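Figure S7 source data.
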Amino acid sequence: MIALKNLTEEELKQFMKTIDEPAYRGSQIYSWIYKGAKSFDDMKNIPKTLKEKLEKVSYIGNLKLELKLESKIDNSKKYLFELNDGNIIETVMMEYEDRITVCISNQVGCRMGCKFCASTLDGLIRNLEPWEIIDQILKVQEDTKKRVSNLVLMGSGEPLDNFENTKKFLKLVNDKNGLNIGYRHITLSTCGIVPKMKELADIKIPINLALSLHSPYDDKRVEIMPVAKAYKIKDILDACRYYIKSTNRRVTIEYSLIKGVNDSEKEAKELIKLLKGMLCHVNLIPVNNVEERDFKRPDKSHIYKFKEILEKNNIPTTVRNSMGSDIGGACGQLRRKHKNSEVE
Ligand code: SF4
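Tokens for the predicted iron/sulfur cluster complex:
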């Protein structure tokens, strides 16, 4: 069975030919999919005979809404969606004055093992297919009745560990007859898979790249992110420079601040040395407490001291506001609680 939401318009036209239908039917179906059709019955100008044929060989691909939580302190919403195999993923919608950003998942769980992240506590269950990534956006639009303008691939999973499906997703989401979200409005976050960062640079899709760095020292980084055993900071930053050169885009360096672990002045100064001359900005992310790990958020004054040191050395720095802290804001927290039946 083919998931039609995995296909580009051109692929859908080709698919029609394989089932002895005219190619233009592919464009009609594609258009219905992005108008939100959930079943073939919703597709008004498609003949009954074709609908019956499609039922036998394909399905559209729909996530089932399992739970929605709305923050009382900001405009964020958190969704849990059930996949066809019963797995659960989470998606976050953040509404700002001028845009709606959706943080999407691209794997069920994650195998990267970052110590501050709840998504990885049970390892990787499986990769998401392109339709399972794209439908998170369609379902948020359907729920909010608003157009999603910006995307961050920062939910559960490492996008470059699901590279083929991520590439296909990027192609689909940018299509002008589909969701039409501009590449410059999309940010992909990676923990630093060097060969894939270079491949991404080579396909020259001008999306924003964000690197989870979290420490300027290789040995300390390994303690926070086990994937650091495979790739040295120097090589990762070289890959960032390569990305900047290929795409002309500024890279975001994400730095989770963990009390007593990576928040000292010495670390700030080392970071300055590493990033000198690079077209980047630093995003400081005070960690949310993950119950299963012993990481704490630094005091506010300490966070702003760290920021000041970087800025005095001409490194543009922001502190990320954690949205939805009352609804399991940190990546993977809500899904995990739901799995453990703490959320009804
Ligand atoms: S932070 Fe990202 S890469 Fe690291 S474990 Fe969590 S989901 Fe995976």
